[in-house]
Amino acid sequence: MTVLLVADLSGPLNQAGQFILSLSVIIVLHEMGHFLPAKWFKCRVEKFMLFFDAGFSLFKKKIGETVYGLGWIPLGGYVKISGMIDESMDKEALKLPPKPYEFRSKPAWQRLIIMSGGVIMNFLLAFVLFAVILQIWGDTYLPPQSTTYGLYADSLGRKIGLQTGDRIMSIDGKPVKNEEKVVLDIFTHSAKSIQVQRDGQMINLSIPDEFIGELSHNRLDGFAEVAFPNIVDTVKKTNIVSGELKRGDRVISLAGIPTPDYMTFVTTRVHYKKDTVDLGLIRGTDTVHIKSVLDSNGAVGFIPVPPDSLVRLTTVKYDFIASFPAGVRKSIEVMQDYIAQLKLLFTNKHVKSQDSLGSVLTMAKAYRTKWDWESTWRLTAFLSVILGFMNFLPIPALDGGHILFLLVEMITGRKPGDKFLEYAQVTGMVILVALMAYALGLDVFRAFFKH
């Protein structure tokens, strides 16, 4: 008999599918932001590509004067507008006299609108998506007062004096609204202190400068997370030596060590792999002790009650009218956080680029391993803001570089020469390709050599 072992790829495939869907929506609408004004101003658009088609395309069809296609490199897309110096580097066409339908023949204000359209469309997409999300699913957050069991203090948290059970009430004296966002807020604002509630008292914990670098090195992991009790939901298999494990049991100790929350239990059990241990349980009003053999991963053999049903999340839903200004505020908040993180690369000597940068692999891993529409659209809106901002940077080969040159032209009345624009485009493309290769290399290194 031949036994074929097939790895479960459903999780990574779901992540890839959601990521490609998000990227496709963002890219198509970004390029539509260039395509539509180009058509309005009677420019000829030769190509409209979703994903890059270096060497060949997966699909293409000519409709009118434009070839629409699907490339095979999911790192972006483009529209090729006649008479424009872009990534196509069509130098032969630029040697000929300008034609009325070419980009270079149009007034500077029209070219500025065409080049700004992609970024504007990215921000509009984010506004609309956040507005729809806030109408359908609402804005869900966890106030500090609702963290019944406080936080689980991981190694970095314990390093600055945080203890399991603490509630972070404020950061640098500013009240915390969402306990699930405290790590990001500490990082983006380079916090100097946090104020925690412990046993009914407020305690101030100082944060040293180098701590922000440690957070960055750990990619915001290893500080703290919401604590929740370890309650049995489903018993998967019987590893019990004596006694019985039942649904609803709360595990409060392992091998005599108190485990008041799930993460404490998880970090304790790894030291007792394949051992027979005593489990302390609360069953109803009674304390019960049973014995169980842990497997090679240190697991007992049950699925705990998920945290969402054990902590009191607050959800605020918006009506149709209120959702749109709220969507704008959400987009601005995302952009401010992102700019703050970029700023840290230049202002905090402890934050290193190799810890902060990531490629499409990092983006894809942010998606759920099970298809989740709410999460997918939230991440699509988030990425649309980020990519819109990145495209607006005044770097040659990006929209922001073209916009900068057009603004200089409109102010000075002098148009940059074609040779200058060609060199700027090539320089920008080299920089971008180098950055993408560097980020991809970092992700590959983390996947294979960093655990």
What does this molecule look like?
The protein has 13 helices and 19 strands. Helices cover 44% and strands 20% of the residues. The protein is elongated and about 90 Å long. A hairpin with a 2-residue loop joins β9 and β10 (201-206). By secondary structure, the chain is α+β, with helices and mostly antiparallel strands. It folds into 3 domains: 10-137 and 381-449, no CATH class; 139-227 and 311-316, Pdz3 Domain (Roll), CATH 2.30.42; 232-304, Pdz3 Domain (Roll). Its EC number is 3.4.24.-. Keywords: Hydrolase, Membrane, Metal-binding, Metalloprotease, Protease, Transmembrane, Transmembrane helix, Zinc.
Beta-strand residue percentage: 15-25%
**Could you say which structural class the secondary elements and strand pairing correspond to?**
alpha+beta
The dominant shape is: elongated
The helix content, as a percent range, equals: 40-55%
Total domain count: 3
Described by strand count, sense and barrel closure, the largest sheet is: 5 strands, antiparallel
Q: Looking at the chains present, what oligomeric state does this protein adopt?
A: single chain
Number of strand segments:
19
The parts where pLDDT drops under 50 for at least 5 residues are: 1-7
Cofactor: Zn(2+)
Membrane topology: Multi-pass membrane protein
GO biological process, one term: proteolysis
Keywords: Hydrolase, Membrane, Metal-binding, Metalloprotease, Protease, Transmembrane, Transmembrane helix, Zinc
